[in-house]
Hints:
With 358 residues, the protein is of the alpha/beta class.
Amino acid sequence: MEHPTWHNVHPDFSLNGIPSAFENLFEIGYSLIKEGEPFEKPIGDFLVDWASKKPTLEVATSGSTGKPKTIVLQKEHMVNSALATGEFFQLKPNQKALLCLPCTGIAGKMMLVRAMVLGLQLDYVEPSSSPLPENNKVYDFVAMVPLQVQNSLSQLSTRVKTLIVGGAPVEAGLRSKLKTLSTQTFETYGMTETITHVALKRIDRESSGYFEALPNVSIAQDERGCLVIDAPKISNERIVTNDMVELAGNTQFEWMGRYDSIINSGGIKLVPESIEEKLSNLIKSRFFVAGMPDETLGQKLVLVVEGNATEVQKLLQSIKNIKTLSKYEVPKEVYFVNSFVETVTKKIDRRKTIQQIN
């Protein structure tokens, strides 16, 4: 019987400087589970799982857009996703990559798969908000969440050639800073069900502002205006998302916000993501807007800011002065929270954070 596709580990693959052939994956994984640091155990679990003959593995969703759930993915589809990323970015064997995301989620697992399939030299570090290791190495390919990017801005130009940013939208202030760097940076669109990204948007002066679907990915809209993804190489079924988009041709789209996060305030439909984008130049700490129950309006728009309370009236006046905001998009109340509740993959857990307020 021939080897399953996922057992074809590239001969140039190495993990933290140690060449790692397929035959050694189980042993490496097992030793990480038994003797590794807490953050290394999920890496070990994944390697042991990958080395097995079982064609599927289970991955937990992040829970940032709903209740976390477990999804079963085909390993062959994960290989196909890695190949598509390799083709898009022209990644070559022996190039250096960095895993600085938790291996509990799909983004961390896929960095391992890409390295194994494409023959990358992968270093991994403990996930933190300042992830670049102090080894002065230059990395060809790195994936980060926006908070990590924000804290690495001074090093990116000299340390990272290609950066993909996911896990949360890239707000306007960070986007404009990234445009000044020499690092080639892309915002990603994807989810656990699509095995990380199925579309990418370049962040630089030439960017069209649209996400571009990867090869072998078709996109459409349903009657709600939400994105439908057809990607036979990575999913056996069409994926109907709750992401409202505007299509631009057959391969491009603009992300508008989540259908299930729309706030209905007195019959006016408000899109939180659109309002947050308009507020992002004004508010420097982490924040989000949400709908809270209101007897008159059904839902009222509130602003939740991380950190110590400042002068609320002054902040609201500054918000009212933003020309792009309609009067309905001005929050009715502002709440300050010492620190936001986060999901396992370090995204803001809006639902639980709001529960702290009530």
